[in-house]
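Quick one: structure for this chain?
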Amino acid sequence: MFHTPFVVSFALLLSFPLLFLFVPRILPPKHVEISLPDELDDLALFRRAALTSLGGGGAVSRLGVTNPRPKIAFLFLTNTNLHFAPLWELFFKNNEALYNIYIHADPSSKITPPGGVFSGRFIAAKKTERATATLISAARRLLATAVMDDPLNSYFALVSQHCIPLHSFKYMYKTLFVKPISGRGSSSFPIHRSFIEILSDEPQLWDRYNARGKNVMLPEVPFDRFRIGSQFFVLTRQHALVVIRDRRLWRKFKLPCFNMYSCYPEEHYFPTLLSMEDPDGCTHYTLTRVNWTGSVDGHPHTYQPAEISPRLIQELRVSNSSYSFMFARKFSPDCLQPLLTMAEKVIFRD
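Got it. Here's what it folds into:
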């Protein structure tokens, strides 16, 4: 017969692996909140950006008034190196007067700054963490910085380090600025639509709405006004200012989640806010293609070098809307070389 102390000790030893497996599922998740100093810094930044925009822009463009063509601001949100910087360099080539670049890099990550057109384009950044409102704050910082930096920034495209372009810059520029909304804007700077996914009939909508607790979103966000969508978007300047100026919805979306498995604040805040403020000014779909087939832990399919081919690029461009997809994610860093090999003859040949 085994002695009782031995049995108890042996049982405890066997229980340790089970504790590591089940305790995270039983105990409430750690709540990551935005600190008061960070919140105050952001509010000051957003106020400056809002004031700069009054009176039609405020700041003078670095190009002066001789080139009034609108620009696209590319907002890179990352916590690793920009692995595809060489591909983006080719994308931007010979279009210097029509774009600006801004990078928000998590300061807690060790990132090697890329050179070329990315040199000196890092903004003042703060820590980001998945399933928290820090990703909303980072995107708002990028928008505010870009709004203040150049009054000619008219579209704001948020992308990640895992995104690649699917068309040439000229093709994208012409597509975005070709057709303004009828009856809006002036002849000099007409108003266009924002390309942001806005969904209201997804099966996980209720769980996501209650991720912070039952009825916590009320009264600002009733369930029938709550929306979800892709975190990557292309916003007009008008809508970038709506995001920067918002305080009312932010008070709700910055609250920590209790159900971390349904908490994707950055996929909720922007679609809900713009759906409430100007649904007709949004296309309700994104220009970034994502493959959710075989997703793991909330992450989409990651393309590997063996999958890279001209046919893949053609397939990724195809959408259900009247617009082709302009970006795609998610690609592993070692996809860079096969992408560069066919950049000129496939990706940038529209």
